[in-house]
Amino acid sequence: MENESVKCLIIGSGPAGYTAAIYTARANLKPVLYEGIEPGGQLTTTTEIENFPGYPEGISGPQLMENMKQQAVRLGADVRFGVVTSVDFSKRPFHVVVDGQKSLEAETIIICTGASAKYLGLESEQRYKGMGVSACATCDGFFYRGKEVAVIGGGDTACEEATYLASLCQKVYMVVRKDYLRASKAMQQRVMNTSNIEVLFGHVTQEVLGDEQGVNGLRLRNATGERTIELAGVFVAIGHHPNTELFKESIRLDENGYIVTEAGSSKTNIEGVFAAGDVQDSHYRQAITAAGSGCIAAIDCERFLLAQ
Questions:
Q1: 0.85 surpassed by pTM
Q2: Cα end-to-end distance, the chain, whole Å
Q3: Active site residues
Q4: Does the domain made of 3-116+240-307 have the CATH classification 3.50.50.60?
């Protein structure tokens, strides 16, 4: 098996990975970054981003990721297409295998594999992703000001999304499969006290409706039959799962599978292994916070190597 030694290996791309690559490249760590199964991460499925600083007219998710990637490459990062398929963190240098065939030894590793939104699994949902179907109200709610939308889910995340959207939208339907909300009492209270949120208990989403312009409705089923509601956007809020399957045997994860980092840093429980972005952030999940944590990881990595 071919072998290669690197000073800094970045696993995963997206705003965290590319920012880590920019900073480690400028620090002359000659980073190698493997983009993973979805180069650019979740942002490549987002059409328009209006809240990333520096773009007064907004920018598309894929374009922002391409810009970050090109900046990293220009500064000297070696950005490669490939998927890390196994890791051994038992001793430094760490041993990593890419695509099941290429072997690497890395003095330090920055994990930026992100998290993936959970979806319902409907064909129509996939068809309208980015055309009215979203998994992030903070990212996309702005586009639905004064319109009617639906939030699917009954937990804390769904309640947070619904109350946020209620401040922008004319009306918010909450589509809840069970006959109760799973959210905390405080979040339930907030939803029930918001006049333009209507909770549809005991409803299951059958199909996302739309045309070439995007989403225009939802077909739902409850105990008495089917109904259709007209709306402009659908926000799926049934949770995220961090992409940590590869690391679960070797790194400390929390009860939800997110990598645990030392407070105020990107350090994991393994010296020389750092984590940035949504893979260790279950709370904010924004492009700007992921980019910021990529910067933190790069600086932590540089200081670790200087201390060796």
A1: no
A2: 29
A3: 136, 139-140
A4: yes
